[in-house]
Design brief:
The chain is mainly α. Helices cover 62% and strands 0% of the residues. It has 7 helices and no strands. Helix 1 packs across helix 4 and helix 3 packs antiparallel against helix 4. It is elongated. The N and C termini lie far apart (62 Å).
Length: 175
């Protein structure tokens, strides 16, 4: 097996990076209109305290991995071409980034001592915590993850919405 020519490799690398970037938009859409819509029956578990190692919301990780697996198999085993491998790898890379930020850093599903100190990391962590301040599927703010609005803007929006659905203990922290 020989490597594709340099322009083809460059195209595949750019396709991979574009896929990783596009996944943030896809994640926003799925989180805002599916998970906080008809898919709330799974996602609701993520807005309540976890009682075990797993929650129903974890099924979304499996669901969103399926296109990546299919594209990787298609590109590597079934002859669909390098584009399928690049897109499948891009989806998988976004999933790995999301897992690291969301499940490990923000929700601490793995013990660690990391504390967000940089402006960007503090911003995404705080934005996600403000998202979780609301227990219901309605009235939430900040549905993206790697691109997050400023926490001050999110707090203003929660206030504008009358603080509907906010947990009582969180209410004092937001004020």
């Amino acid at each position: 097996m020989s490597l594709p020519p340099a322009p083809a490799l460059l195209f595949l690398a750019l396709l991979f990076l574009a896929t990783v970037a596009a996944m943030e938009g896809f994640a926003y859409i799925m989180h805002r209109w599916v998970m906080h819509g008809p898919g709330w029956f799974l996602h609701a578990s993520h807005h309540r305290p976890r009682t075990g190692r797993w929650e129903a919301n974890d099924l979304y990780f499996v669901i969103f991995a399926l296109p990546s697996i299919l594209l990787l198999l298609g590109g590597v085993q079934w002859g669909w071409g390098g584009w399928a491998t690049a897109v499948g790898a891009g989806i998988a890379a976004y999933g790995a980034i999301y897992l690291g930020f969301h499940d490990i850093i923000v929700h601490r599903r793995v013990d660690h001592r990391y504390v967000a100190r940089g402006r960007y990391m503090k911003r995404i962590v705080q934005a996600h915590r403000l998202h979780h301040a609301v227990e219901t599927k309605a009235h939430c703010v900040s549905f993206g993850f790697l691109i997050a609005p400023r926490p001050e803007a999110l707090k203003r929006e929660l206030t504008r919405r009358g603080r509907a659905g906010i947990r009582p203990a969180i209410e004092r922290e937001i004020a």
